[in-house]
Amino acid sequence: MRTTQQPIDSVLRPSAEVAEALAQGAPVVALESTIISHGLPQPRNLEVAVELEEIVREAGAVPATIAVLDGVAHIGLGPDELKRIATEPGLRKLGFRDLPAAVALGASGATTVSATSFLAARAGIRIFATGGLGGVHRGWTESQDESADLDMLSRTRITVVCAGVKSILDVPATLQRLETRGVSIAGFRTDEFPGFYLHTSGEPIDWRIETPAEAAEIMRGQDALGGPETALIVANPVPRDEQLDPALHDRVLAEALAAADREKITGQAITPFLLGYLVRGTGGASLEANLAAVRGNVRVAAQIAAAWSPRKP
Ligand code: PSU
Ligand code: MN
Fold first, then answer.
1. Residue 228, φ and ψ in degrees, nearest 5
2. Does residue 32 carry a catalytic annotation?
3. Which of 54, 100, 264, 269 has the fewest CB atoms below 10 angstroms from its CB?
4. Alpha carbon distance 190, 203 (integer Å)
5. Calpha distance 243→234 (Å, rounded)
């Protein structure tokens, strides 16, 4: 346990590569680690963690996968650290509220969208890619389960590229919350909010952009206006030809929700439970759709980072 007051750089550690890129104003993309540790099955998860970093590099940006290891928030992981995230048994899932305890007690864990957004912004990274955000769960009136992702995005100046929110959630309710909390949303070449595994959720969104440069312009607009430090969600759908079959999705999701209810799965365990059920129940098809969505998001995030960066790749 840490007993004395620690300077900030002892708990927040950018890798040498990330620190250099940030110092030079070169493009950097933050990546979260919970999707690796809790969202994807082994051994595929490690391959994906490595692949996502490669996609960022191919686009001329520096990847910064974020996780807490032995009480230090790492901004950018080396190969051995990525492997720990993908394989360490019992690794924690850390939301924003878990960070102080993890840092103080020397714990390790993967960071969710809420924790990753905070740490990325804290480190000076503006762009972040993930699969699908957390949000308001179905049955909210009974459980009051709303992901901390939404609250953090309402008070963090970050741009998160995602395929909407996970379709296991109550999507209309989540969009209402995002509206209330002042989180901006732009559809990337779409007028409809994406449906994570599905190309569309069927819900309309108000702003559509066609290029990464337009996303960077909106970010400049946020800064020019000032005001509350809210996020920008760039909603990028999985391509239609790579989406999960909607009928299969609906059928297996209904089964998954019933199973979660029966087995009384709640709290942090519910999202990994539902995602895992979908992978098994669709014979792996949901995994392929999830990966297609994440790959696309990472690519777009790297392009936005390049457009945002004062120093072009
Ligand atoms: N995107 C994915 N798979 C995931 C997640 C996102 O494609 O597993 C993770 C993110 O870390 C997100 C978390 O923050 O799921 C939401 O968890 P909860 O519903 O417990 O807040
Ligand atoms: Mn929750």
1. -60, 145
2. yes
3. 264
4. 11
5. 18
Q: Residue ranges of the domains in the chain?
A: 8-243+285-308
| Residue type present at position 193 | F
Q: Go through the chain and tell me how many residues it has.
A: 313
pLDDT tens per residue across span 104-146: 999 999 999 999 999 999 999 999 999 999 999 999 999 999 9
Burial environment of residue 254 by CB neighbours within 10 A (0 to 12, 13 to 18, 19 or more): exposed
147 known ligand binder: yes
Residue in 92, 274, 96, 281 with CA at minimum distance from that of residue 170:
274
Nearest CA among 226, 222, 94, 236 for reference residue 160: 236
Q: Tell me: the pLDDT tens digits for 207-255?
A: 999 999 999 999 999 999 999 999 999 999 999 999 999 999 999 999 9
* 269 annotated as belonging to a binding site for a ligand: no
The single residue of 20, 32, 83, 242 carrying the catalytic annotation is 32
In the numeric block, which tokens belong to residue 297?
């998001």
Sign of the CA dihedral with 159 first, then 160, 164, and 170 last: negative
Rounded distance between C-alpha atoms, residue 252 and residue 263, angstroms: 16
The tokens of 129 are what?
Answer: 């890619």
Residue 238 annotated in ligand binding:
no
DSSP 198: B
Class of domain 8-243+285-308: alpha beta
Pocket residue to mutate for ligand 1, from 32, 34, 68, 138, most atoms within 8 A of Cβ? 34
Residues 6+ apart with CB under 8 A from 90: none
> Of all atoms in ligand 1, which is nearest to the CA of residue 290?
7
Q: Closest Cα to residue 197, out of 173, 176, 169?
A: 169
Query: Where do we find the tokens 């762009």?
Result: 127
